[in-house]
Structures are given as structure tokens and as C-alpha cells.
Amino acid sequence: MKTFRTELKVDNAPAGINFKSRIITLGSCFSEAIGERLVSNKLQTLVNPFGVMYNPPSIHKALSYSIFNEAVTPHTFLQHNGIHLNYDFHSSFSALNGQELSSRLTDSIGATHYFLKDADWLLITYGTAWVYQRKETGEIVANCHKFPSASFSRSLLTVEEVQSSFATLFHHLKKFNPGIKIILTLSPVRHIKDTLALNSVSKSVLRVACHYISGQYPDVEYFPAYEIMMDDLRDYRFYRSDMLHPTSEAEDYIWDKFVERYFSPDFRDFEKQWASILSALRHKPFHPASETHQQFLRTTLKKLEEIKKMDVHVEDEISQVRAQMLK
Fold first, then answer.
1. Within this chain, do residues 128 and 204 fall inside the same structural domain, yes or no?
2. Buried b (16+ CB within 10 A) or exposed e, 232-268
3. DSSP percent split of the chain into helix, strand, coil, nearest 5
4. CA distance 266 to 311
5. Do 299 and 215 share a domain, yes or no?
6. Residue 223 lies in a domain
7. What is the pLDDT of residues 305-323, one digit of tens each?
8. What is the pLDDT of residue 269?
9. Residue 89 covered by a domain
10. Which residue among 153, 210, 227, 294 has its CA within the 20 to 30 Å range from the CA of 189?
11. Rounded to an integer, what is the distance from CA 170 to the centroid of its chain?
């Protein structure tokens, strides 16, 4: 039988993610998608602590704030329609007064600082090479916060600019946490506001930059999420109705490749076992008091208690099952 698709194969990473791994994800919404799955698999994961970010310099700047545990510079704060925001962070960081916003950012930077210090893995997902610079300062912003375009100048980063920005980050990060390993990914979501043609230019810049960066620095590698979506799946049935974002099936497929690449053999076994338990926990019985369902709960509880012996935090799930059991 003929093969009608080109599957992207991945090998096992030399050092895998295991039960004790601490992971931080940063960048586009793909970082959130992967991060949430890591959390659901009981891994210690800090998911996009500063909200969604797309361009490399802004992602690197947020990490630098965290490495040095620095206060956010005052001139990056703004007020729009009575809401206080910051040019270096996502609009989810907003408040009705400046002090509240400053406190929230300080707390998030501090929490990320202490998590990052002992993190084993950092997953960075770049979304676009197009950047907006404030005309009054020349600084690249993470978010324009719907301010008029006349306030910004738009430009395309070069491969060299992405490399230079990463080099500075890598130097400081490795001094701060010498053992951390970095996974670079490219968001499979297309930014058609740039037009399809210019989105391709943007993704090309980022992909070439990732290629050179991963070849230049130790403990840095590229995971081909973008290629899996574009070349392996390569079909609009794997896109949501907006024709831009991957479907849950596509995310599942990319996740399976990620597991195959980065999870240790023991943790891959656990991931399969845990997926079965999660499916059981989502089960909605027609007759909760029936002996069949009660036996199902007892079996599920036994599996959870066995997992707990592995120092996996499943207290909430155990409580959920026990609450359904008849006395």
C-alpha cells in the first residue's frame, strides 16, 4: 500500500523529562498548550507566567526581568481607557490603578525568578519576527494594547537580531542556572494579519534563527512542532474553524511526538497509565449508586493510591473519587 503522507520521526532525547523535572514554558499560545498538558501529567510546570508573548526580544526581556528579579521600568507603564497596562507584558496583566499592576508584575517576576533558579527545562515558543517599536523610545513592545498604530513603527527582525538577543539571554541564564536545558519551538499558528506571504517570511526568519542557535549553544535544541503541523499533518481538517489554530487532534498528535522525544521511559509509561485514569475520572455514570459504578470507583481509587506511592500529588483526584463512593 502506498504511503500518502510524510511522517516526521523524532528520536529520544539523551536526557529525558522525569517525575522530578521542573519545567517553565514561555512564549506563544503553543507554550500554553504544551504547558497545560505537562501540568495535567503532574509535572512541576510554570506555564506562561507573563501571558502570551510572540516576538523573541520581548520573550527574552521577560526572562531577563526574572533572572535578575528586577522591578519593571517605570516608562513601560501606560494607561488606556482607565486601565493600567504595561508594554512589556500581556494585557492579562492589567489593573484599575498603577500600584496594583506594579505589585502583580513584581509578584510574577519574583515567583518566576525562584522557579527558574532550579528549573531543569525551559520551553520557548516564538510566534513572529514582526515587531512594533514605540516611536518615543525605540523599544520593542510585547503588546501594543490597541493603541493607535501611529504610536509605533513596524519592522521585521533579522536572523542576526534574533541570534544576538538570544545570545545575551543565554549568557545570563546559564550564569543563573547552569544546568537548565532549553527547547526552542516555532508556533504552528499562522499570523494572517501579516498576510500569508509575510507570515511565511516571519516564520522563515525564526526557523533559520532557531537552526543556528540550536547548533551553536550547548543544552539548546529545536523541537519541530511547526514542521509537524505544516508537513506531517498538512491538512485543513487539522485546523479549527478559524483555519489558523490546530485542532485538539492536532495538538494531541504534536503532544505525542513531544512525549516520544523528551519523556524518560519510566515517565512515558506513567503518561499512558495516567491518561487512562484521567479518562476514568471524566466518566459520568447514569447510575452512580450502582454496584458496577461503585466497583469502578474502588478500582480507580486503588490505582490512584498506587500512583501516590510514587510521590505524585494526586490528593485532589483521590478526594474526587472518595466523594462519589457510598459509605
1. yes
2. bbeeeebbeeeeebbeeebbebbbebbbebbbbeebb
3. 50, 15, 35
4. 14
5. no
6. yes
7. 988 888 888 899 999 999 9
8. 86
9. yes
10. 153
11. 18
CA 156, chain centre distance (Å): 23
* Residues in a beta bridge with 289: none
* Phi, psi of 90, rounded to the nearest 5 degrees: -65, 155
- Tell me, what amino acid is at 118? D
Are residues 200 and 296 located together in one domain of the fold?
A: no
- Percentage with pLDDT > 90 across the chain: 65
Please state the domain count of the chain: 2
Clarify whether residues 251 and 220 are in a common domain. Answer: yes
**Residue 1 pLDDT > 60, yes or no?**
no
- For residue 12, tell me if it sits in a domain: no
Cα torsion through 98, 101, 105, 106, rounded to 10: 60
What is the arithmetic mean of pLDDT over 151-157?
Answer: 94
Judge whether 221 lies within some domain.
yes
Q: What band does 2 get if pLDDT is binned at 50, 70 and 90?
A: low
Residue 183's nearest CA partner among 284, 261, 111, 108 is 261
Three-state secondary structure call for residue 11: coil
Q: Are residues 250 and 142 in the same domain?
A: yes
pLDDT at residue 37, rounded to an integer: 93
Higher model confidence: residue 38 or residue 192? 38
What's the mean pLDDT in 187-195? 86
DSSP 90-143: -TTS-BSSHHHHHHHHHHHHHHHHHHHHT-SEEEEEE--SEEEEETTT--EES-
Model confidence pLDDT, tens digit, residues 116-140: 999 999 999 999 999 999 999 999 9
Q: What is the CATH number of the domain that holds 239?
A: 3.40.50.1110
Give the domain range for residue 57. Answer: 22-265
Most confident of 27-41, 72-86, 166-180: 166-180
Query: Of 265, 293, 312, which residue sits at a domain end?
Result: 265
Residues 294 and 326 reside in one and the same domain: yes
Q: Are residues 147 and 181 in the same domain?
A: yes
Diameter over CA atoms, the chain? 71
**Which pLDDT score is estimated for 62?**
96
210 with 313, same domain: the answer is no
